[in-house]
Each structure stands twice: as structure tokens, then as C-alpha cells.
Write a structure and sequence with these properties.
The chain has one helix spanning about 70-80; strands at about 15-20, 20-25, 30-40, 60-70, 85-90, 100-115, 125-130, 135. With about 140 residues, it is mainly beta. The chain has one domain: Trypsin-like serine proteases (Thrombin, subunit H, Beta Barrel), CATH 2.40.10.10. Strands 1, 2, 3, 4, 5, 6, 7 and 8 form an eight-stranded antiparallel β-sheet that branches. The protein starts with 13 loop residues before the first strand and ends in a 5-residue tail after the last strand.
Length: about 140
């Protein structure tokens, strides 16, 4: 495969956060967008079995956005990302073009961190805790 045709993570990344008080785009000044999905695996091993067995349990997930503060516009974004905010996070790893994968989930902002390095750029991070199902379109996941 030729190098120009390879997917470069983050190159076209689109991220949007929507709450009852407004919508902010989060992809302009981000430095990292990390999504983690996991599932509980309750053990159901019977007493005479030699190996442990499990069943699929409850799915969970988080997203963590790290981004640079950009002054006044950065303040409005930070205000939307304070802990306790509820909304919908939408992201498209390869941009918003038709046929490209898009994901969204309802979430709570469960954590908001500020970092003031000396010297250096001010960096914020917000963690989103998934509330309900992850929705992926198209439905195939790469």
C-alpha cells in the first residue's frame, strides 16, 4: 500500500460535544483523544470445571480529550467541559465524509484537569464516562 493511502490517525479527526447549553467542536486544538471500551466478565465457573469460564456482562467506556487552551474561545470550551456536564460526544476518526466511520455516545464529564507548565502552553483534559450504548455508523468497525 502506498504511503499516501494509509490512514493517519487524527489527520481528519472530528469531535463535537453537545449539551443542553450548546455545542462546541473539540478537534481544533486537541493533542490526544483516547477512547476505551470494556465489558464486565462475571465468572460462572462450575465447581468441577478445571478452567475458568465467563459470560459477557455490562459494557462501559470512557473518552479522554486533551487539548490546548486558546484564550477566550478556549474558555467557552472549558466551560462546556466542566465535571457534571451531561451531553453527547460525537467523533469521526477519518472526518465526516459519507461512508467514513462515525461514533457517538451519551456521556457525563466525570473529570476535568488543568495543567499550567512553566514555561509552556496551558493544557486541559476532560474525561467522558459513557452513559448507554455506543452508536457506530456505518455499523462495521475497522
Amino acid at each position: 500500500m502506498a504511503a499516501p493511502n494509509r490512514y493517519r490517525g487524527g489527520l481528519g479527526l472530528y469531535i463535537k460535544w453537545t449539551t443542553t447549553t450548546g455545542t462546541v467542536t473539540l478537534h481544533d486544538d486537541y493533542t490526544a483523544w483516547d477512547v476505551s471500551q470494556d465489558i464486565d466478565l462475571p465468572e460462572v465457573t462450575a465447581g468441577n470445571e478445571a478452567d475458568a469460564t465467563f459470560i459477557a456482562g455490562i459494557a462501559k467506556g470512557t473518552g479522554k480529550l486533551t487539548y490546548y487552551d486558546t484564550g477566550l474561545s478556549g474558555t467557552s470550551v472549558a466551560n462546556q467541559l466542566q465535571k457534571g456536564q451531561y451531553g453527547t460526544i460525537e467523533y469521526a476518526p477519518q472526518g465526516t465524509a459519507t461512508g467514513k466511520p462515525k461514533r457517538q455516545f451519551a456521556a457525563w464529564v466525570s473529570k476535568f484537569d488543568e495543567k499550567y507548565p512553566q514555561p509552556g502552553a496551558v493544557e486541559f483534559s476532560a474525561e467522558f464516562t459513557k452513559h448507554g450504548a455506543m452508536i457506530t455508523t456505518p455499523t462495521s468497525v475497522y
